[in-house]
Design goal:
Strand content: 25-35%
Structural class: alpha/beta
Radius of gyration: 21 Å
Number of helices: 14
Bound molecules: uridine-diphosphate-N-acetylglucosamine
Helix content: 25-40%
Largest sheet: 4 strands, mixed
């Protein structure tokens, strides 16, 4: 397994082009199952998770034509509506094929995703909503068996917890259901809105995009479309913090300021300069980093997917910060690794008290999940000496050309083949 070697201490300066969002691309790719016409997605990031979903779609029978930063998918005939364990266990987002398969073909057999490093992550909200829409669901031998021989019907779905994946699954299912579906307490994440926009381009009737109430009037069939994937706010947010932590100055080309408003507000509190323009966002470190508390929340709150990176930033603040994670119960796997680099972090239940230290020191550390890995990269960029990060396949799931993007801005970072 490859490793990443970083020698810290260089301020990052320059521009980083922000890729298309992984978390938008995955549901958008699943949406190809809703139509027999070709769906083309542009601004596609080159990531391991995209390859995983491509293989899942191909084994269902989708004809996939890759292009330059784009993909065309044609789900004309789908001989196989089974999503096997071997692929689903690699990537939980595979469960997003459930809604589209069920809506268009009336049946789907999808492996249960199981737990993952950041928590138990159940899918009860997905299943409960699809049952309300008339699906008959049972779990057997680790698989979800779902059937709706006469098709799905519109329903009133109220989620008691905000779920990105459940909102996306129901949105796709509702697009082809008979009648009207109302989704209350829907996730408002920009990736959900991006999916809704693409569905509308395919002929779906959706109102309330970007709000917590989505109203979908089902249509008998959807058409093909070409859709540009929204910029990755989590990638952009990670590099924003790379600028702040190294006291650098980075322009994040193509980043959408309104998708990162919660982070920008906090970064300003820590003392960084944040300028927003049509071209993107510019972040510059500005002397000492002040401590500022953060609570993760569904959009438009502070994203859980930026919590680990923010912890790295607070590790070298001039003060202290309380970080509270409200979305996932076990999302502090990076804390012990950051501590190995000299960070002072105390965890109490869902909160972490981070007392800033003057310096972090390079060490050999292990990536445990995608965003935890990027927090170790940020720590490595500012640490004294050499940091080696093991198990970086996590990073390859969500960051396109990470080493190149950072080294182009002055970081000393390289990929080492092999390792543990
Ligand atoms: C998506 C993102 C992930 C991000 C997360 C929260 C993708 C591919 N992944 O994951 O990067 O961290 O949103 O912003 O877009 N829950 C239930 N029952 C359910 C579904 C969810 O209890 O049926 C809980 C989860 O355990 C979690 C919370 O709801 O505590 C939010 O999860 P959810 O928004 O569904 O996350 P994902 O869609 O899996």
């Amino acid at each position: 397994m490859d490793r990443i070697r970083i020698v810290g201490g260089r301020p990052l300066k320059g521009s980083i082009p922000i890729s298309g969002a992984k978390n938008a691309a995955l549901p958008l790719m699943a949406a190809c199952l809703l139509t027999d016409k070709p769906l083309t997605l542009t601004n596609l990031p080159a990531l391991a998770d995209i390859k995983t979903l491509t293989s899942l779609l191909e084994q269902h029978g989708v004809k996939v034509t890759p292009g330059d930063r784009q993909i065309t998918m044609e789900a004309k005939e789908i001989p196989n509506t089974v999503a096997p364990y071997d692929i689903v266990r690699r990537m939980r987002a595979s469960v997003l094929v459930l809604g589209p398969l069920l809506a268009r073909f009336g049946n789907a057999v999808v492996s249960m995703p199981g737990g993952c490093a950041i928590g138990t992550r159940p899918i009860d909200l997905h299943l409960g909503a699809l049952e309300k829409m008339g699906a008959k669901i049972h779990i057997g031998r680790g698989y979800i068996h779902a059937e709706a021989p006469k098709g799905l019907k519109g329903a009133n779905v109220r989620f008691d917890k905000v779920s990105v994946g459940a909102t996306e699954n129901v949105l796709m299912a509702a697009a082809l259901a008979k009648g009207e579906t109302v989704i209350d307490n829907a996730a408002r994440e920009p990736e959900v809105t991006d999916l809704a926009k693409c569905l509308v381009a395919m002929g779906a009737k959706i109102e309330g995009m970007g709000t917590e109430k989505l109203v979908v009037k089902g249509v008998p069939r959807l058409e093909g479309a070409t859709h540009k994937i929204v910029a990755d706010r989590i990638e952009a947010g990670t590099y924003a913090m790379a600028a702040a932590i190294t006291h650098g100055d980075l322009t994040l080309e193509g980043a959408e300021a309104e998708h990162l408003a919660a982070l920008s507000e906090v970064l300003r509190k820590t003392g960084a300069k944040v300028e927003e323009s049509k071209a993107g966002i510019r972040i510059a470190g500005n002397g000492a980093i002040a401590g500022a508390d953060v609570i993760t929340e569904p959009f438009p709150g502070f994203p859980t997917d930026l919590q680990a990176q923010y912890m790295a930033l607070m590790a070298v603040s001039d003060g202290a910060a309380m970080i509270t994670e409200t979305i996932f119960e076990n999302r502090y796997m990076h804390a012990p690794e950051l501590s190995r680099m000299g960070a002072n972090i105390t965890i109490h239940g869902s909160s972490a008290l981070v007392r800033g230290v003057e310096k972090l020191f390079g060490a050999e550390v292990m990536a445990t999940d995608l965003r935890a890995s990027s927090s170790l990269v940020l720590a490595g960029l500012v640490a004294e000496g050499e940091t080696i990060i093991n198990r970086i396949y996590h990073l390859d799931r969500g960051y396109e050309n990470l080493e190149k993007k950072l080294s182009d801005c002055g970081a000393e970072i390289e990929r080492l083949p092999g390792g543990r």
